[in-house]
Design brief:
Layout: E1 6-9, H1 16-25, E2 28-31, H2 33-51, H3 76-87, E3 91-94, H4 97-112, H5 120-131, E4 135-136, E5 139-141, H6 150-160, E6 165-167, E7 173-175, H7 176-182, H8 194-199, H9 203-233, H10 243-247, H11 252-265, H12 269-276, H13 286-289, H14 291-313, E8 321-322, E9 328-329, H15 337-365, H16 388-404, H17 426-459, H18 469-479, H19 492-503, H20 506-515
Helix pairs in contact: 1-4, 1-9, 3-6, 4-5, 4-9, 9-11, 9-14, 9-15, 9-17, 11-14, 14-15, 15-16, 15-17, 16-17, 17-19, 18-20
């Protein structure tokens, strides 16, 4: 598949930007000479062990609870094939393409460290799948997040063998053998240890964590933007966001969020009019006044998640692993607890940020709290319903986000005849976080759509805007896609248009262009 950029894998860690480039934007993957040398070195260790008469886990024995059985040399390639075929046992809805590409890149990065004992040809073949845009079909159920994301990774290894189902670069569902042949790729016959090395890592949950971090960084900036627009649209006060007040509680995320809100509101005529026009409201509601505290806590959570993801992308996870001094050692590094915890932690933060956004939106629609706006922002209340049901949509999403915030990582279910008697459920945590991120995107889109409508009703539209310059720029970007107030229209397409502008960063970019700095 064509890509304007490429990512070179050495023995060091992947970056977030590299993973997003490959998983989401189709960047090509290249293996360095350094990684090839490291893989060849560790492969020689495996070959020496395979040649002796002692049992070595993953090389000359069965797996998991079957590790007590020693396998004769003539059956070892069949052992690897059987491992992959039996473990490719996922079920359910097909997992998103970008998640599987992220999973594959993370596994390839671990192979490239030279700590897994695979031949370089296996890694090059895996890179070939990514570069050809061949994406194995994986169902959402099958990983318990321990001993690696076994089922998802097995489907990928199965495709490497020329078996199973895949999607081509253009999304066509096809047998793996046919897709490989069309791309000029040869199926790989796995040798000792290689099947195990292809499936024993936290790669899927890590991929979902890394993608979510990239999305949430943008969405938390958008949440600050939305909060600022709601403060302005509800004729609130900007005094509570002052830097000296934030410094009394020196939480770094809170300070960043407050600084963003101050920047967006700078130059607002509507805000200034409240200060000079006999303003009598002593305090705004929590959903306005406490936005930096909640958004800031989410930012701090995101920072912790970034630290965990960085450590994980720098890891060489396999069991057993070939150490730098040439030992083959069993270990427990495949356990997904570190990743599972932060996936769940982020889902909690997402639910809270969305809940506050919905509360701000609701204030616009209640005539007793909107300070002079039409009920439900209707053009002709009674005849029109305005944004009444848009808030229902928000409320339904927020309720779902609260359910998604229930942690997966507190659960465990024994498997493999009690050999794997404690598991992380990190894969499940990753899948629900992806749904939560999508929900937050939609909730913020509705808040922005609502605040822009309220501001248009206050000042007559963008052409006569009394908003802060950054808010005016955002309103203009929205109005390029969604018409201003008027009699009721088919609302779902307008919500979708706003969602796209939030998801692709267009509204943030509009504000950033005025502020001269990013709201991240």
């Amino acid at each position: 598949m064509s890509a304007e950029t490429s990512v070179t894998l050495g023995t060091g860690p992947l970056t977030e930007a590299e993973l997003v480039a490959v998983a989401r934007h189709g960047a090509a993957v290249v293996l360095s000479a350094e990684s090839a040398a490291a893989m060849q070195s560790s492969r020689s260790v495996i070959e020496e062990l395979a040649a002796d008469d002692k049992p070595h886990y993953g090389v000359s024995t069965g797996f998991g609870a079957l590790a007590v059985k020693q396998i004769i040399p003539e059956q070892r390639r069949q052992l690897q094939r059987s491992l992959i075929r039996s473990h490719a046992a996922s079920s359910g809805a097909e997992v998103d393409r970008e998640v599987i590409r992220a999973l594959m890149l993370n596994r390839l990065s671990t192979l490239a460290t030279g700590r897994t004992g695979v031949r370089p040809v296996v890694a090059h073949a895996y890179a070939g799948l990514l570069n050809a845009g061949i994406t194995p079909v994986v169902g959402e159920y099958g990983s318990l997040g321990c001993s690696g994301d076994l089922a998802p990774l097995s489907h990928c290894a199965l495709a490497l063998m020329g078996e199973g189902s895949v999607r081509t670069a253009d999304g066509e569902l096809t047998p793996a053998a046919q897709a490989l042949a069309a791309a000029g790729l040869e199926p790989v016959e796995l040798q000792e240890k290689e099947g195990l090395a292809l499936i024993n890592g936290t790669d899927g949950m890590l991929g979902m964590l890394t993608l979510a971090i990239a999305d949430l960084r943008r969405l938390l900036g958008t949440a600050d933007l939305a909060a600022a627009m709601s403060v302005e649209g509800l004729l609130g006060s900007d005094a509570v966001f002052a830097a000296d007040l934030q410094a009394l509680r020196p939480q770094p995320g809170q300070a960043e969020s407050a600084a963003n809100i101050r920047a967006v509101l700078a130059g607002s005529v509507l805000i200034e009019e409240q200060k000079t026009g006999g303003f009598t409201r002593v305090q705004d509601a929590y959903s306005l006044r406490c936005a930096p505290q909640v958004h800031g806590a989410a930012r701090s959570t995101l920072l912790h998640a970034e630290t965990v993801a960085q450590c994980e992308r720098a890891s060489a996870i396999d069991n057993p692993v070939v150490t730098p001094d040439g030992r083959l050692e069993s270990n427990g590094n495949f356990h997904g607890a570190p990743v599972g915890y932060v996936l769940d932690f982020l889902a909690i933060a997402v639910a809270d940020v969305a809940s506050m956004s919905e509360r701000r939106t609701d204030r616009f629609l209640d005539r007793s709290r909107s300070h002079g706006l039409n009920a439900f922002l209707a053009f002709d209340p009674g005849v029109d319903s305005g944004h009444m049901i848009a808030q229902y949509t928000q409320a339904g999403i927020v309720s779902e986000l609260k359910r998604l915030a229930v942690p997966a990582s507190v659960d465990s279910i024994p498997s493999s005849a009690m050999q794997e008697d404690h598991v992380s459920m990190g894969w499940a945590a990753g899948l629900k976080l992806r749904r939560a991120v999508d929900g937050l995107t939609r909730v913020l889109a509705i808040e922005l759509l609502t605040s822009a409508r309220a501001l248009d009703m206050r000042d007559g539209g963008v052409a006569t805007s009394r908003s802060a310059p950054a808010v005016t720029a955002v309103r203009s970007a929205l109005r390029a896609m969604v018409a201003g107030p008027g009699p009721d229209r088919y609302l779902a397409p307008e919500i979708e248009a706003a969602r796209v502008l939030v998801a692709d960063g267009s509204l943030l970019a509009a504000a950033d262009s005025v502020l001269g700095r990013p709201l991240l």
